[in-house]
Amino acid sequence: MIGVELVKLVLRPRTWVVLGMLVALPTLVAVLLAVTDVAPGPGEGPPFLSAVLTDGTLFPLAALGVVLPLFLPIAVAVLGGDAVAGEVQSGTLRYLLVRPVGRLRLLVAKLVTVVVFVVLAVLVVAAVAAVEGRLLLGTAPATGTVSLSGSTLTPQQLAWRTALALAYMVVCMLGVAAVALFLSTLTSSSVGAALGTVGLLIASTVLLGLDAASALHPYLPTRYWLAFVDLFRDPILWDDVVRGLLVQLGYLVVFGLAAWANFSTSDVDG
Amino acid sequence: MSGTAVIRTRGLTKRYGELRAVDGIDLEVAEGAVYGFLGANGSGKTTTVRMLLGLVLPTEGSAEVLGAPMPASRTTVLPQVGALVEGPGAYDHLSGRLNLALLDAAGPDPLPRRDRRRRCAEVLEQVGLDPADRRPVRAYSLGMRQRLGLAAALLRRPRLLVLDEPTNGLDPQGIREIRTLLLALNAEGTTIFLSSHLLAEIEQMCTDVGVLDRGRLVLQDRLDQLLRPSGLVEVHSPDAHAAARLLGDAVVEVAGERMLVRADDAASLNHHLVGSGVRVARLGPYERDLEQVVLEASSVPPAPVETRAEVLTS
Amino acid sequence: MTPVRWRWFVVLGAAVLLVALPAAVQHRPGGGPPTRPTADVLARIQASADVGWSGRAQSTGTLQLPSSDSFATLGTLLGEQVELRAWWRGEDSWRVDRVRSTGETDTFRDGRGQVRWVFESERATYSPVSTIRLPDAVDVLPPSLGRDLFQGAQVDEVAFLQGRRIAGVDAVGFVLRPSDPASTVGRVEAWFEPTTWLPLRVDLYGRGGTTPVLSTTLTELDLRPPAVSAVRFDPPASVALAYEESTDVAAAANGLELADLPSSVAGLPTRDGRDPGAVGVYGRGPTTMIVFPLRGSVARPLREQLERNAGTTQTSAGTLAPVGPISVLLTRLPGRGGGFLLAGTVTPETLTAAAAQLQERA
Question: Transmembrane segments in this chain: where (chain A) (predicted)?
Answer without folding.
Answer: 16-39, 59-85, 106-129, 165-186, 198-220, 241-261
